[in-house]
What we know:
With 257 residues, the chain is α/β, with parallel strands linked by helices. Helix content is 40%, strand content 25%.
Amino acid sequence: MSRPLLQVSGLTKTFGGLEAVSDVAFDVAEGSIKALIGPNGAGKTTIFNLLTSVIPADSGSARFNGHELLRMPTHRIAALGIGRTFQTSLLFDQMTVLENVMVGHHLGGRSSMLTAALGILGARAEERECRALAMRALEQAGLADLAGRPASELPIGQRRLVEVARALASEPKLLLMDEPAAGLNMRETDRMGEIIQRTRDGGVTVLLVEHDMSLVMSISEEILVLDGGRRLAEGPPEQIRHDERVLAAYLGEEAEL
Ligand SMILES: Nc1ncnc2c1ncn2[C@@H]1O[C@H](COP(=O)(O)OP(=O)(O)O)[C@@H](O)[C@H]1O
Ligand SMILES: [Mg+2]
């Protein structure tokens, strides 16, 4: 196994009396797709929020490429090379697909201070670079033909791919994806799976939260299962599929392992 790009240990977060994330530890190997699964409320999105400092952890450590992420400001985490897609769609409907992806570059951006310092000439070069990165990200997501279309015209499957392209435009080393296949039909889900694998093949490590078990089982190298904020099991898909504790945790949920 290649070296870990992300090493999480003792990660803990309590909301009021509720232990949403409780002493969670895991590694993500560089160049891999790792899935984080578990029933609703298991703490998956909270882990993403902790890793990106959207909310502060109570305790623990998350080392990325030698840097401690916990207590680092969100924009610095983005600048280190961590991208994210969200559980709910965040596209600007009035903007084109390309503009939506360019926003990702700015938000992840290294450049706003640089732009101010270099003045308008610098700003134009910056804009060109941003546009080129956004176009490349759209190509990676198979959306290049749609660049000029208003986002409002796209069906959900393509909207979710635009969000992936937006995250790719910030050139992440690690991409955190929160339920990218939510609301997608089978064909769209397959397409999303292909794009995630292609992203990994392009050198981006992926940590994937996803409810669609056939997608998770088919593209992940390793799966971490959470239940009630705790680590329940971890291993390759074939092992997780047959794990009795995992099957029991999913009883009553509509998951086919
Ligand atoms: N900001 C918050 N304030 C209070 N409780 C929260 C907050 N975020 C999440 N929770 C609670 O933490 C638990 C884990 O939530 P979450 O991480 O969103 O689960 P998952 O993504 O696995 O479905 C849930 O019980 C949820 O209600
Ligand atoms: Mg969630």
